[in-house]
Write a structure and sequence with these properties.
The protein has about 270 residues and is α/β, with parallel strands linked by helices. The protein has helices at about 25-40, 75-80, 85-90, 95, 120-125, 150-160, 160-170, 175-185, 195-205, 210-225, 230-245, 245-255; strands at about 5-10, 10-15, 50-55, 60, 105-110, 115, 130, 135-140, 175, 190. The protein folds into two domains: about 5-205, Alpha-Beta Complex (2-enoyl-CoA Hydratase, Chain A, domain 1), CATH 3.90.226; about 210-255, Lyase 2-enoyl-coa Hydratase, Chain  A, domain 2, CATH 1.10.12. The mean pLDDT is about 90. GO terms for molecular function: lyase activity.
Length: about 270
């Protein structure tokens, strides 16, 4: 098993478990990661997903360069095939790209060391990133004559100022956690030994809110990110209307009036 998975207090923790390889991603790990994320997506008891890496050295250093060499099949023949078939035939970047899983539950990356290449691209696909003060971030693909082919080019440009993203992309340079926090790549910093405690604290704060509302907020953000404002506002109103009569929304108002903690059920 290259992925450890557990659920506690409505929080699924997905741990990349190849510390001997700095949690690099080979095909088997990617397939198992997608399976576990799908399990968390479909489990009504799960409200938040935390992704982290085993050991103190690395969150994830991206693709396992020793086990993702160019295959014997041509790119053209694999390009038109299904996600699973293309991944097995060498287009492993499709397995790293998570949007096809349609996960609207919030995902938190708890970054505990090296977060490089596909590892950073994995973290960039999470909604929040909290990092150990010893974490290091980078997209060094250009150094090995490749490019960030999952989402790194686009996602990094959205996450940090363009000039900083371009410097990281074109030089392959690495940045430390304090700099990453300063430029907005991560939301929170933690001491290495406190990282998971802080990540779980953040996850519990989210899980305590109305789960349908939290997921709808994420869906609205993703759906309206690249549309005209009028269309985005119209979709937001429809989303609000879809939530208006939910049991949780009624419960939230009752709890507020009665000055008690709400008991949300996800309906």
């Amino acid at each position: 098993m290259t992925i450890r998975y557990s659920v506690t207090d409505h929080i699924a923790v997905v741990t990349l478990d190849r510390p001997e390889a700095l949690n690099a991603l080979d095909i088997d790990t990617l397939v198992e990661l997608r399976s576990r994320l799908s399990e968390a997506r479909d489990d009504d008891d799960v409200r938040v997903i935390v992704i982290t890496g085993a050991g103190a050295k690395s969150f994830c250093v991206g693709a396992d360069l020793k086990r993702t060499l160019p295959p014997s099949t041509s790119f053209g023949s694999s390009f038109v095939k299904s996600l699973d078939r293309a991944g097995a035939e060498g287009i492993y970047v499709r397995l790293m790209e998570l949007s096809s899983l349609r996960i609207f539950k919030p995902m938190i990356a708890a970054v505990n060391g090296y977060c490089l290449g596909g590892g950073l691209e994995l973290a960039l696909q999470c909604d929040l990133r909290i990092a150990s003060k010893s974490a290091v971030f980078g997209l060094p693909e250009a150094i090995v004559a490749s490019i960030p082919a999952v989402c790194g080019i686009q996602a990094l440009q959205r996450a940090v100022p363009s000039a900083i993203a371009m410097k990281m992309l074109l030089t392959g340079c690495k940045i430390d956690a304090e700099y990453a926090h300063r430029v907005g790549l991560i939301s929170d910093l933690a001491e290495p030994e406190a990282l998971m405690d802080e990540a779980m604290k953040l996850a519990r704060a989210i899980a305590a809110n109305g789960p349908l509302a939290v997921q709808m907020i994420k869906k609205v953000i993703e759906t309206s990110a690249n549309v005209p404002l009028a269309q985005a506002l119209e979709f937001t109103e429809l989303a609000w209307g879809a939530m208006r009569e939910s049991e949780d929304r009624v419960e939230g108002r009752k709890a507020f009036a009665e000055k008690r903690i709400p008991r949300y059920c996800g309906r």
